[in-house]
Structure formats: structure tokens, C-alpha cells
């Protein structure tokens, strides 16, 4: 379980393509502190398992399912990535509940800079629109953000200078893909209401 508060902007140092998977080596001095085999680290919002760890780098395997459902397949050596370790029990929940299970990918459509913040418009897959509401939470590349405007096939977020400086969203341009995870609470509510409606119809 994560919070969507990115701990550091890491870097992909190597990509090994396998038959039906990829092996990534990533550098992250903060998230590798105390890391061990089997630990979880979110990479651009995708929960990955540490296979190997040496110094300030760790290795993670990514299966075909994850490559197909996320933007990780576009990563290459030198790519910058958002990194976050799982939330420890008893710590403050700074963002919102993030599982590290990507629901789909969007695309940066537009950036509108202003003096103190920047509005970013992102495309939204049709099957996710019902979970995204104005002032609700969404995870973009592992970053917990508040939805400013929710359109029929897009949403916008407002980014403060800290987010622009310390995450991938400070570097991505129109046309670049991003990983999206909607608020899991919305999905549970939908399921429970659906089950209740089915039960009432019987």
C-alpha cells in the first residue's frame, strides 16, 4: 500500500528484454536504504518487487501483463521515474490510498503554465471516467493528485512547483504516456451498490 507521495525522482540504468517480460535496473538512493529481496517499490505508480539490490540500485522484473497495461514498456536507460516505498503502519497518510495497481494509461494533452502553478490536461480512458470526479483523488505516474476538472474523456490537475521539480510530471510533454490509478474506494462503492441492486431485484 502506498500514499502517492513520491519519495524521489529515480533513474532507469538498464533494461533487459526477456521473452515475455523485462528486467529493469533502477537507481534510487532513498528507496534502496534498507531494501531487501522481496520488498515492494512503486515505479511510476506500479508496484514492483525487488529482485536484487546493490548500492543505490535495485532490479525488478516486469511481466507482459504489466507492460501491456502500463507505460513501463516505454522506459529505457536514462528514463526518469517516480519512486516510493510502501507506507509503514502507523505513519501519516499524506496522499490517499494507492495500491500500485494501474487501471490504465492516459496521455498528456496540454500544459498551461502560470506564475505559481501549472495546469496539466490528461486523456482519460472511457472505462475509467465514472471513477473520476471534480476534487476527487487520482494517481498519475504514482503521484497522488486532486482532480481540478473532470471532462468526458479527460481530466486536469494543478501542479505546484514542488511537484514539478521532484516528479516526472515536471518533464513530461504533450503526447507522453502516464499511468493512471483511480481511487479504489470508488470501485468498492460501485461494486457494493451493484450487488445491493441485484439483491433487491431478486
Summarize the structure in words.
With 202 residues, the chain is mostly beta strands. It has two domains: 77 residues, Elongation Factor Tu (Ef-tu), domain 3 (Beta Barrel); 86 residues, Elongation Factor Tu (Ef-tu), domain 3. Helices cover 15% and strands 41% of the residues. The strands form two sheets. Strands 1-2-5-4-3-6 form a six-stranded antiparallel β-barrel. Strands 7-8-11-10-9-12 form a six-stranded antiparallel beta barrel. A hairpin with a 3-residue loop joins strand 10 and strand 11. The longest helix is centred in the last third of the chain and has 18 residues. Pfam families: Lum_binding. One of its GO terms (molecular function) is riboflavin synthase activity. Keywords: Repeat, Riboflavin biosynthesis, Transferase.
Amino acid at each position: 500500500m502506498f500514499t502517492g507521495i513520491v519519495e524521489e525522482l529515480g533513474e532507469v540504468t538498464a533494461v533487459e528484454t526477456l521473452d515475455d517480460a523485462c528486467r529493469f535496473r533502477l537507481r534510487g538512493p532513498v528507496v534502496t536504504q534498507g531494501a531487501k529481496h522481496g520488498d515492494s517499490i512503486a515505479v511510476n505508480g506500479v508496484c514492483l518487487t525487488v529482485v536484487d539490490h546493490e548500492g543505490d540500485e535495485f532490479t525488478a522484473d516486469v511481466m507482459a501483463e504489466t507492460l501491456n497495461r502500463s507505460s513501463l514498456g516505454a522506459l529505457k536507460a536514462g528514463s526518469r521515474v517516480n519512486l516510493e516505498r510502501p507506507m509503514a503502519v502507523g505513519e501519516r497518510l499524506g496522499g490517499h490510498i494507492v495500491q500500485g495497481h494501474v487501471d490504465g494509461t492516459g496521455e498528456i494533452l496540454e500544459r498551461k503554465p502560470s506564475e505559481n502553478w501549472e495546469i496539466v490536461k490528461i486523456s482519460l480512458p472511457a472505462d475509467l471516467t465514472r471513477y473520476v470526479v471534480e476534487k476527487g483523488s487520482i494517481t498519475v505516474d504514482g503521484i497522488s493528485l486532486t482532480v481540478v476538472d473532470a471532462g468526458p474523456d479527460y481530466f486536469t490537475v494543478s501542479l505546484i512547483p514542488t511537484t514539478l521539480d521532484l516528479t516526472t510530471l515536471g518533464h513530461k510533454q504533450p503526447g507522453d504516456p502516464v499511468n493512471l490509478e483511480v481511487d479504489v474506494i470508488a470501485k468498492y462503492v460501485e461494486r457494493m451498490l451493484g450487488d445491493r441492486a441485484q439483491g433487491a431485484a431478486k
